[in-house]
Design goal:
alpha/beta; three-stranded antiparallel sheet; binds 5-O-phosphono-beta-D-ribofuranosylamine
């Protein structure tokens, strides 16, 4: 079966190690996709530097460059359309997407979260705050969630989750490091499932079709 590479837009606010993991997976042939454009709300985001180093268009686009939120959304939609984007990859993007963008790309916006949703998610739950909350709660297992985005923070059908044990001597930083390693493995794998057309969404549930005809939901692996 010939599979056309998926056109990705990666939106990031920070260093962009997940963007790098996606680029590495593409370079090694594990992921049939192209990163057509990288967009950040922060002009100095490391993710933009990584994009430039790979000759990928790197755009600083932020709400305050536009008179209204609607004008910003229209511009973003025009950019996404120009690059014929199939899937939007949120990789540490700290802004909520405008509802018009979410609507236009319904079930085509993926986000990665460094905990097992629906716990430890929502507004303010990003970066090291997530791992601090996990350790403070005393849970024994954290992990990574890849989900489709909807109009709410860290909401939308879960596509995959992978556990990471919380160790007795973990600090938020040590836990963050192990979770990030798992993010770098899981995100490209799940994007590849979209490239293969193997993700089906029914209401709040996402299902992954086996390479055969069966359907299974993606648990830990
Ligand atoms: C990751 O932990 C991701 O789960 C979260 O933001 C972080 C981004 O890290 N949404 P990076 O910029 O990809 O290094």
């Amino acid at each position: 079966m010939v599979i056309t590479p998926l056109n990705l837009a990666v939106l990031a606010s920070g260093g962009g190690t997940n963007l790098q993991a996606v680029l590495d997976a593409i370079a090694s042939g594990r992921l049939r996709a192209r990163v057509r454009v990288v967009i950040s709300n922060k002009p100095d985001a490391g993710a933009l530097d990584r994009a430039r180093r790979h000759d990928i268009p790197a755009l600083h686009l932020a709400r305050d460059q536009f008179p209204t939120a609607d004008a910003f959304a229209d511009h973003l939609l025009a950019v996404l359309s120009d690059y014929q984007i199939d899937l939007i990859i949120l990789a540490g993007y700290l802004k909520k997407l405008h509802p018009r963008v979410v609507q236009a790309y319904r079930h085509r916006v993926l986000n990665i979260h460094p905990a097992l949703l629906p716990s430890f998610g929502g507004k303010g739950m990003y970066g090291i705050h997530v791992h601090e909350a996990v350790i403070a709660a005393g849970v024994k297992v954290s992990g990574v969630t890849v989900h489709l985005s909807d109009e709410e923070y860290d909401h939308g059908p879960i596509v995959a989750q992978r556990p990471v044990p919380v160790l007795d001597d973990d600090t938020p930083e040590s836990l963050a490091g192990r979770v990030l390693e798992v993010e770098h493995q899981l995100y490209p794998e799940i994007i590849q499932l979209f490239a293969e057309g193997r993700v089906r969404v029914d209401g709040r549930r996402a299902y992954i079709k086996d390479e055969g005809s069966g359907v299974r939901s993606q648990g830990s692996a």
